[in-house]
Each structure stands twice: as structure tokens, then as C-alpha cells.
């Protein structure tokens, strides 16, 4: 797992998976079977717009399945649920969208609980988590990522802004840039806290 991503565990992960599957299938539905989609949701005048929104929803579903982040699931559920209730209650769209609004409200509630639990766990552990590295230090022929706030090896100072290693070896100062020029893509640094 990529340490730069904080995926949701437990209830949030389950909700994001279910939400991603729902978005993927309901997003592909108007693209693959527009007639059956319109039989359920009502006739549409701009089929191109329905298919475009379907493609966006399917892409969002794929993203949720891959990332499983509660904050993404919450924001999407609030936007889609808000539109379902706003326009469904006004009669601008089919009342079947109110059912989707209830489903979206459920997803929003699950993601809110997951975010609350994650926040409580963070407070309980003192807020420790894997951070994006602010520097890469070379040790021999290997690069090592150093997260922000972690102690640096003796004799080495690292700038959090430029990701440079400045090491005093036998009285000679040497600066190594932690950039694409410093190491080939095939030998990129790994995150080993």
C-alpha cells in the first residue's frame, strides 16, 4: 500500500466499495442500455448529456473502488443526494431519483461515521501517521525516504523545502539533489520509515 494515501478502514472502506460499485454500474447503464435506463428514470431530451453524466459517474465509481477514501465518498454522496432531493421533490426529475437520494444519504452517513472514527483514533494515538517524505537520503547505493519531522542521521541535515541532503564527509561538503536527475526511474527511492 502506498504510504502517501490514507485509505479508510472498516465501515468507510465497505461503504466506498459499495458506493463505487453502484456508481460504476449506474454510470455504465445509460451508456450501454439507454432505452432501459429511460424506461426506469423517465424520458430524456438530451441523451448525450445523460451518457456524459453516466461516464463521469462510472469514472467516479472506478476511482472510489481504487482509492476507498471516506472523504471522497462523502463529498460525492452529498452532491448526488442533494441533486436527487432538490430536483426530485420539485418534480423536475423522476421520483425514482428520491430512492437514490436515500441511498446517497446512507452513504454520506457511513462515510461521516468512518471519518469521525478515524479522527478519534488519530487523537487517541497522538496524531501519528505516515507522512509524505520531505527528503530522500542516500545511504551507500540506496535512497531512503525521510518523512517530515523524523530525526535525521547524525552528520546529515535535510531541508524540508528543497529535499536536499547536505552531508559533511571528511571535511568536504557535498549536496545531492533528491530529484529525477539524482536517480534513474528504474531505481527510484522507496519509503522505508
- Separation of the first and last Cα atoms: 14 Å
Low-confidence stretches: 1-7, 157-186
Number of strands: 5
Order of helices and strands: HHHHHEEEEE
Profile the largest sheet. Answer: 3 strands, antiparallel
Estimated share of beta-strand residues: 5-15%
* Radius of gyration from CA coordinates: 24 Å
Shape: elongated
Name the helicity range: 40-55%
Q: Write out the strand line-up for the largest beta sheet, numbering strands in chain order.
A: 3-4-5
Q: Average pLDDT, to the nearest integer?
A: 75
Q: If helices are DSSP runs of H or I spanning 4 or more residues, what is the number of helices?
A: 5
Secondary-structure content class: alpha+beta
Q: What is the topology?
A:
Elements: H1 11-32, H2 34-41, H3 47-67, H4 70-90, H5 96-124, E1 133-139, E2 142-147, E3 156-158, E4 164-169, E5 172-177
Antiparallel strand pairs: 1-2, 3-4, 4-5
Structural overview:
With about 190 residues, the chain is an alpha+beta fold. Helices cover about 50% and strands about 15% of the residues. It has five helices and five strands; from the N terminus they run αααααβββββ. It has helices spanning about 10-30, 35-40, 45-65, 70-90, 95-125; strands spanning about 135-140, 140-145, 155-160, 165-170, 170-175. The chain has a three-stranded antiparallel sheet, with no helix packed on it. Strands 1-2 form a two-stranded antiparallel sheet. Helix 1 crosses helix 2 (about 35-40), helix 1 runs antiparallel to helix 5 (about 95-125) and helix 4 packs antiparallel against helix 5.
Amino acid at each position: 500500500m502506498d504510504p502517501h494515501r490514507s485509505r479508510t478502514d472498516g465501515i468507510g472502506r465497505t461503504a466506498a466499495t459499495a458506493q463505487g460499485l453502484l456508481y460504476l454500474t449506474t454510470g455504465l447503464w445509460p451508456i450501454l442500455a439507454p432505452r432501459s435506463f429511460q424506461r426506469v428514470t423517465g424520458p430524456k431530451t438530451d441523451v448525450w448529456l445523460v451518457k456524459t453524466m453516466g461516464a463521469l459517474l462510472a469514472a467516479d465509481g472506478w476511482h472510489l473502488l481504487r482509492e476507498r477514501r471516506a472523504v471522497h465518498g462523502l463529498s460525492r454522496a452529498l452532491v448526488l443526494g442533494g441533486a436527487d432531493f432538490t430536483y426530485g421533490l420539485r418534480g423536475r426529475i423522476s421520483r425514482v431519483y428520491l430512492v437514490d437520494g436515500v441511498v446517497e444519504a446512507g452513504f454520506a452517513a457511513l462515510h461521516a461515521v468512518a471519518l469521525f472514527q478515524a479522527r478519534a483514533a488519530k487523537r487517541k494515538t497522538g496524531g501519528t501517521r505516515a507522512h509524505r517524505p520531505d527528503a530522500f537520503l542516500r545511504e551507500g547505493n540506496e535512497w531512503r525516504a525521510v518523512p517530515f519531522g523524523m530525526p535525521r542521521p547524525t552528520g546529515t541535515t535535510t531541508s524540508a523545502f528543497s529535499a536536499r541532503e547536505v552531508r559533511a564527509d571528511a571535511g568536504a561538503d557535498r549536496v545531492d539533489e533528491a530529484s529525477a536527475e539524482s536517480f534513474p526511474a528504474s531505481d527510484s527511492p522507496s519509503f522505508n520509515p
